[in-house]
Amino acid sequence: MSSTGAHPHCQPCENLKHWIEIIVRDEHNQPFEGVSGVLIDAMKNKHPIELNASPILIENLAPGPVEIELDYDQWLKAAQDKSHPRNEETAKPVEEFSSSYSAHKSGPVVYQEITTGDLTKLPKEVVLPTNHQKGKAGTLKLFTDKTYILQVRAYKFITLRVGMFFDGTANNTYSAQWGKQQLENYYRKWKAKYDAECEINSKNSNGTKKEVPITALSNDCFTYPKKENFILSLFKNDEGEMETVAGSASNELTNVQKLFDLYSQDKFFKEKNMFSHAEYITGIGTGNSTAIAPADESIVVGQGLGIGKYGVTAKVTTGIEALSKNMDKVATIVKDELGIKADGIEKLQLDVFGFSRGAAAARHFVNVVLDGEKGEFSTTFSKACQEAKFPLVYGFDWNESNELKANCEITFAGLFDTVASVVNIFSKNSPLGLDLNTHTDNGDVRLWIDPRRVRRAVHLTADPTIECRDNFSLNHLNSTDEEHFHEFVLPGAHSDIGGGYHSRLSFDNPDYLLPVLEKKLVKRVSRTFSERWDEEKTKQYVLNELEKYKVRDRLTGWKEEDYVIEPLDVRQEGKNDGGRVTGKLYIQRQVEGDLSRLYLRLMYGLAEFHGVPMSDENSEVWENKDMRHYNIEDYGSGFAKINQSVLELAKNGQYSELKQKLSTPELKRSFMALNLFHHSSGDDIGMSPLWDKKEHCYKRASYLCEEGK
What we know:
Layout: E1 18-25, E2 35-40, E3 46-51, E4 56-61, E5 65-70, H1 72-79, H2 93-99, E6 109-114, E7 142-143, E8 147-152, E9 157-166, H3 173-205, H4 230-233, H5 255-262, E10 267-269, E11 274-281, H6 299-304, H7 312-325, H8 327-337, E12 344-355, H9 357-369, H10 376-387, E13 408-416, E14 457-462, E15 474-475, E16 485-490, H11 494-498, E17 517-529, H12 535-553, E18 563-565, E19 569-572, E20 579-590, H13 595-609, H14 639-651, H15 655-661, H16 665-673, E21 691-692, E22 697-698, E23 702-703
Helix pairs in contact: 7-9, 7-10, 13-14
């Protein structure tokens, strides 16, 4: 040491006769190309350099330490490029190369392993993965009059493939699971009521219990469990307290949940260098809790209007936050549990599924992802990856559409009957601003998805004469003239397509009919009369109107024997002899909920064909009796055969054959005869059917999708 405390070799001098030779290679002994920078000598002189196949030789240097400072943008892009992968072999080609290298002036050769961070200075906002930060491979010290062969630690980035599953309006898996528990517990009470009614009806009609028609059953046999008045419950000796099953708790799991369960969750595919993860987002109008309990439900604002804290756009934000929150978990599984020495994510692939307003949310989510670097998804997700120490590759391009170059892509969009029906408070279509009509003006919700960025899209839609509700207008998929965007029109109502109706196969007791009994108020007619003598004429008028409506309703194909007109309700009004007559027409029948399972097979098969990481365990899922939500009943009419045929065709991507097979009038009539269609329309708020004057039938409206909306 000198008297000043400096190393004798570090003192600047005017004798600039020294040199340094540097070779920078990746783990496979390959050079980095086109990265510029400066070499800084002991006198702080800066010498321009560029990484390429040739050694860097700088002469006329002051003796002492030397630093390298590469352009960080060029250097990070080069160092993290796929062309410089990690060396998974035991041999070290760079070290072998250094042992036989002929150095400048036959000087000493120093081999050293370094990191990206050792050769640059980074701005605060750029944080390297821990293993690549400065000094993580040891301290790098460069001195003149030596040859250095530097091996840069390679990166290993993976593809993250994520399934995003947006459930439908009033569909909530956790609430539905709770509801099913209550229904199972209610079986004995219901069965006692049902058997008693069948006994009475069979005696009155001189028939057998099995011959009692559903139309002869009272309301008690159609009523779901309901919590009793607290005071009355004190005098009950029943085991346990009966809870009310209503709303989302009264539904079966939808196809969105069933597909979510088949998606490969937190699995690494070594041959694809891909890790898969999935997120389920509860349905529009229901809370975000994952507790097995009745959901918090926003009936009017969320389920009715599609807005508010559980509305369409809010659920998209919920999905983004859920995925981002779980990135720490993803990083832990990849690096710690699976032992994969990964530094982060080079490609993000998204498979997006949704039903009803959940399909609208799925389409809006796609747009939010494709908003790019400044969008809600990018900013939230990128930050979460950084905090999880599992960052996106440097220079991650959110906007590239070329499939070979893209860092972010929507690999598959699986949509069930998109019904956005979102109120636009600031609509231009209404002078008051608040527009409650169903149309294409859905406020902030964007349904058009870019065919240049979405690799595959499949939209399964309901027959417009079966699903004919005025407030359930269809939002078509755009660009269906493109070969990779497909829209099917399928026999069935809205939830016959996306799921939510119960199947008896899901329950412990096959004779439990309550979950598959349908009693729908088709029409209510009410008329006043002023004098007692006018009462009979008014009754006849009401009955005639109900009969007319039944004739119109039956044009769809519903069975005559399933309709019931309940006894007229006559009420006196005021002090005079006048009053009001009210009549109600119901359709009352047993409807099996297995049809949605056919369309589950259709969507699953196409998703599998297009490479979505799902597994049905070589088709065992569909037959496994322990997986009740996937099973179907044959009904003795070839229903099982068509399910198997559709699954096989879908797995082979046979679109033309599938569309032909599922669109025949014969198939529709067959399903109608089997009571597989639900009568979704009715005379309840928001459930009225839409009459098509031109076609003289009930038929719902549908709207094409415009770019940007």
